[in-house]
Amino acid sequence: MTSSNRCHADPAVSDAPAANCRCNTVEVTECIACELSRGERVLPGGLIHRTHHWLVEHCVGPLGIGTLIVKPERHVTAVADLTKDEGIELGPLLLRASAVATQLVRAEQVYNCLWSHTGGKPVHIHYVVQPVTKTQMADFGVYGPKLQVEMFTVGEVPDPKDIEVTAARAKLLFAS
């Protein structure tokens, strides 16, 4: 993904050189989130939902079936660097994604977390919208952040065929 060398996070300073902001207007060559969006990596279930600025996909990691990823289409590594329009869309989209995730599995709770680090470095921000079931909490014996850590430790990724079916249901729920 290549962007201009001008800041676009704040229209009032749109002529400011990129060096004066943190909005990632430089060429991005290695970003899993961008690669998934561009079709350079396999994304089971494909794109589930899109707004003007945001994409919703099923999680490709080990956080269970029905876990959705909400990410800006533009490569952004900090919430403070979102544009005003990106920010305006975010709240209603997280609300909708949480409602959809709740309907995908019999969730006891839906966690909403912002993740944006890999190897201790900022990466493409993405919200993890994770429906958590009583069964998951009982199986792992923990909940909250510890549940997510345990799920990553075990590393069990949902079957891509199950993700395809779940993503198809999610698309219908977003459309309704």
Q: Topology of this protein?
A:
Layout: H1 32-37, E1 47-50, E2 54-58, E3 68-72, H2 84-104, E4 109-118, E5 121-132, H3 134-140, H4 145-154, H5 160-175
Antiparallel strand pairs: 1-2, 2-3, 3-5, 4-5
Describe what this molecule looks like in 3D:
By secondary structure, this protein is an alpha+beta fold. It has one domain: HIT family, subunit A, CATH 3.30.428. Helices cover 34% and strands 20% of the residues. It is built from five helices and five strands. Strands 1-2-3-5-4 form a five-stranded antiparallel sheet. A hairpin with a 3-residue loop joins strand 1 and strand 2. Helix 2 crosses helix 5. The chain is globular. The two termini are 32 Å apart. The N terminus is likely disordered.
Short structural description:
By secondary structure, the chain is α+β, with helices and mostly antiparallel strands.
